[in-house]
Specification:
This protein has one domain (5-321): Arginase, Chain A (3-Layer(aba) Sandwich). It has ten helices and eight strands. Helix 9 (267-275) packs parallel to helix 10 (299-321). It is globular, with a radius of gyration of 18 Å. It has an eight-stranded parallel sheet, with helices on both faces. The chain is 32% helix and 16% strand. It is of the alpha/beta class and 322 residues long.
């Protein structure tokens, strides 16, 4: 299986990486009204929205910086040899236009966008935005059947509410997704959970519905390979969503995020766990919570798009197996 040359990224041998219009990984921009949308198999999408943020804001600026830093991504995975752009047709589908003044309208816009993407048979790879972005995406992707999920994060995002009853923040999306039947909790695994806590409400909920939580202590004790083998056993062969919060990674390597937690994985381990998604039936994936105001060097965003490339390689591999 080979891709259409139209969908190949611009090479740094042909145009310097600092030149040209920055699209995700230098891919062609194909919006939802473009006739070539029917040929796209993997769509990279920005959700520049952070109205669910409860601490340091800024992830609304994440997709733009992630696009800019993604110009450094080349054609071949140096560790695995995978060349995803030659395997499947990939394109930058642009940004979902949010309404920063209305949380529920923004979520409706995101869901409507992804419903069109799903209807076109495209696997979405998303750059957030805060973690609440995952909920409206799941409302589009989880309609045919509840999805499994592999979730990399330092927080469970399973809380009931914030501030006396607010049910929609970046700390609640997966509780809502389970309640709405978008995720099968018995096929959900959360990896890297750590830090001080308000209480045990989120972990109690996880235990009550069957979500597997792998705390950072267990992750470090067992190692990425063993943990990811269990994660893949939990989600099985059915469609699975992958959600990757950049604060999964230790802030020494990824300081540009709103709710950092110390004691996390290194940048190398961050890439390894994404690489070990090979074989998962990925229905969609996201990389969220990159906040450029807290890392002006762009290092966090570059690490983020490097993780996205690893996920893209696995999505491409899965599509070629079908």
């Amino acid at each position: 299986m080979s891709s259409d040359p139209f969908f190949h990224p611009v090479s740094g041998f042909d145009l310097p990486r600092y030149a040209g219009v920055p699209t995700f990984m230098r891919l062609p921009h194909v919006d939802l009204d473009n006739p070539r949308l029917k040929d796209v198999q993997v769509g990279l999408i920005g959700t520049p929205w952070d109205s669910g943020t409860t601490n340091r804001p800024g992830p609304r600026h994440g997709p733009r910086q992630l696009r800019d830093m993604s110009t450094m991504i080349r054609a071949q995975n140096g560790a695995t040899g995978v060349r995803p752009f030659e395997m499947v047709n990939c394109a930058d589908l642009g940004d979902v236009a949010p309404n920063p003044a209305d949380l529920h309208d923004s979520m409706g816009r995101i869901t409507a966008f992804y419903e069109k993407v799903r209807a076109a048979g495209i696997v979405p790879l998303t750059a957030g935005g805060d973690h609440l972005c995952s909920l409206p995406i799941l409302r589009a992707l989880g309609k045919p059947e509840p999805l499994g999920m592999i979730h990399f994060d330092s927080h469970t995002d399973l809380f009931e509410s914030y501030f006396g009853g607010t049910k929609y923040t970046h700390g609640t999306p997966f509780r809502r997704a389970i309640e709405e039947g978008l995720l099968d909790p018995r096929r959900v695994v959360q990896i890297g959970i750590r830090g001080t806590t308000y209480d045990s409400e989120d972990r109690d909920f996880a235990d009550s519905v069957g979500v597997r939580v792998i705390a950072i202590e267990e992750f470090h004790a067992r190692g990425p390979e063993d943990v990811m083998a269990e994660a893949k056993e939990i989600v099985g062969t059915r469609p699975t969503y992958v959600s990757y919060d950049i604060d999964f990674i230790d802030p020494a390597f990824a300081p540009g995020t709103g709710t950092p937690e110390v004691g996390g994985p290194s940048s190398f381990q961050a890439l390894v766990v994404a690489r070990l998604l090979a074989g998962v039936n990925i229905a969609g994936a996201d990389l969220v919570e990159v906040s450029p105001p807290f890392d002006s060097s762009g290092g966090t965003a570059f690490l983020g798009v490097s993780v996205m490339f690893e996920m893209l390689c696995n999505i491409a591999g899965g599509l070629t197996q079908k």
